[in-house]
Amino acid sequence: MGGVPSRLAGARTSGSGKGLRCEDVSVTFGELRAVDHVDLAVAPGEVVAVLGPSGCGKSTLLRAVAGLEPLASGRVLWHGEDLAGTATHRRGFAMMFQDGQLFGHLSVARNVGYGARLRGLRGSALDAEVARLLDLVGLSGRGEDDPLTLSGGQQQRVALARSLGAGPRLILLDEPLSALDRELRERLAADLRSVLADSGTSAILVTHDHGEAEVIADRVVQMEAGRLASTAP
Ligand SMILES: Nc1ncnc2c1ncn2[C@@H]1O[C@H](COP(=O)(O)OP(=O)(O)OP(=O)(O)O)[C@@H](O)[C@H]1O
């Protein structure tokens, strides 16, 4: 934790067809075209921020990538494979929201180990994985705590560790820090960047905070009324 390591070499471009590709993706709610013919590529290991005002369609785009919204047009592909027939839980993507939605009846360790258990880890292998994840998010030794006694920032770290524990190939982050106060947000933004870099996980970060996007992401794309605009390195 701490420090901002440089991103993985070669993770900056996505022209190879590797990683995620949204092609001409639209999502409609009745007359409203919430996501309007969006093209977006995320290379393996790359973190892309989607920045835009409230209601511009950011969350809907994430949900479409996750397979939680039907597409009115276009395709979502991973390594060139169309995911249309792949259910959400089979896509290998994890989602993390503003409110980390921890399981209040489970210890921190059980929360963090949840995804790893789904991957089949048990016993000492599971314990080692939980310890690794807790270390990754700066919460070593807190495994037996009740998550609801942790601060908001600590809870978000647990949520992040739990998401990473599922071993996702892509993590979808929907305003993961916006419930926190500014000081904590700035600190956790730097931590989030280093955790994503250390784990080599591809990510899409949705936010309306320009500074947060700049700190966390390799690339920032602007969304406005359902459409993606400029790309700034
Ligand atoms: N299930 C739904 N049914 C109808 N309209 C919806 C639904 N979900 C989202 N919308 C509408 O789609 C548009 C985009 O919403 P979305 O939540 O994607 O925006 P957002 O950019 O993530 O906003 P915020 O930053 O406030 O979370 C909004 O006009 C919203 O009202």
UniProtKB/TrEMBL annotation:
Region Disordered, annotated ranges: 1-20
InterPro entries cross-referenced by the UniProt entry: AAA+_ATPase, ABC_SmlMolc_Importer, ABC_transporter-like_ATP-bd, ABC_transporter-like_CS, ABC_transpr_FbpC, P-loop_NTPase
Span of domain ABC transporter: 20-232
Chloroplast is among the record's keywords: no
Cited Gene3D superfamilies: P-loop containing nucleotide triphosphate hydrolases
Ion transport is among the record's keywords: yes
Database matches in SMART domains: AAA
PROSITE patterns assigned to the protein according to its UniProt record, in alphabetical order: ABC_TRANSPORTER_1, ABC_TRANSPORTER_2
GO cellular component: membrane
CDD domains from the UniProt entry: ABC_Carb_Solutes_like (cd03259)
Keyword line: ATP-binding, Cell membrane, Ion transport, Iron, Iron transport, Membrane, Nucleotide-binding, Transport
GO terms for MF: ABC-type ferric iron transporter activity; ATP binding; ATP hydrolysis activity
Source taxon at top rank: Bacteria
PANTHER family for the chain: SPERMIDINE/PUTRESCINE IMPORT ATP-BINDING PROTEIN POTA, SPERMIDINE_PUTRESCINE IMPORT ATP-BINDING PROTEIN POTA
Name of protein: Thiamine transport system ATP-binding protein
